[in-house]
Every structure is written in structure tokens, then in C-alpha cells.
Amino acid sequence: MKNLFIAFTILFTTSLIAQTHQIIKHDGETMDINFIKTANNLVYYTLPQSVEEKTISQYAVAQLNEKSKSDSKIISEKIQLNGKSDYKKVVVLKKHQTIGLKESGIITSFYGGTKGESPLSFSDNGEKRLKQNAALKGSAFIVILSNELKDLKAAIYTY
Question: What is the top-level taxon of the source organism (predicted)?
């Protein structure tokens, strides 16, 4: 029984070691991990000496290298903004999808619309204005904190 337990332990540990990957982030940082999966704009992984599951935003990760096969997989392309006109490239995220990105401030704006405009149109214009302000500051990601008529603000994130 003892020998059987040791055999299973060795088999299990070698399979964990064989799954070692390396993440290369857009800011140049590298991390050795055991890759699990990607879902909902997040990369799920564990550290080599741990079994605790961790996450990082897929937008923070440039590529995933599998060490045993020398295989690389591109997770996301780096978003380059060249001013206010690139506002369509700005990505709206939820707060939990920003792990691994750096918060670089808060932006505010105002609603500007014509009389008789629908509430949905107001909301879309507010998001558009926030994206334009983020693009002007060179931030590729925003998290909308408030999208109300008199209080329009978002947190901006960079690599």
C-alpha cells in the first residue's frame, strides 16, 4: 500500500512539473506558471509550488509559452493608441477583469445630447465620451464607475 501511494505521488507530481508554462506580459514581465484555461477575458493558472488558482486579465498577457514543447500561443495583441481618434480601440472591462493591469487614474465627462434623445442613446454617448478621454490620455482600458446623467466617470488602466 505504501509503495502504491508513493507511485501515485510521483506520477501526480511529474504531471504537474510537465505542465509548466511561462507568461510574458505586455509590460515585459515574465512569470512561470501552470496554465489551466482562458475564459471570460481571464487567464487561470497556478504557481508551480502552489495549488491555489489565480487569475490575470488576458489583456495583460502577450503570450503563453509551453516550456516542454517550445510552443508559443499569443493571448492578446498590445493596443496602441494614437490620440482621441482611436477611441474605438479602447476596451470597456469589468473591475475583476483588470487583474495585472495598472490603474492610472479617474476620468470624468458630461452628457451632451439633444432634446428628445432616448436614454439608451444618452448612455452610448456617455461611454463614447469616456472612451475618447481615455484614448486622449493613452489608456487602452476603462472600467465605468458611474454612467448617470450628472455623474459620468471611469477608472483608466494601462499595461
Answer: Bacteria
What is the rounded CA–CA span in Å between residue 141 and residue 23?
20
pLDDT digits (tens, 9 = 90+) for 97-140: 999 999 999 998 876 666 666 766 666 788 888 999 999 999 99
DSSP string, 7-20: HHHHHHHHHHHHTE
Which cell numbers hold the place of 156?
Answer: 483608466
Domains of the chain: 16-74 (2.30.30.100), 84-158 (3.30.1660.10)
Whole-angstrom Cα distance, residue 135 to residue 126?
14
Phi, psi torsion values for 13, nearest 5 degrees: -70, -40
Instruction: Please report where in the chains the cell 495585472 appears, as a residue.
Output: 100
22 close to 70: Cβ distance less than 8 angstroms? no
pTM: 0.78
Read off the amino acid at residue 56: I
Cα–Cα distance measured from residue 116 to residue 99, given in angstroms and rounded to the nearest whole number:
40
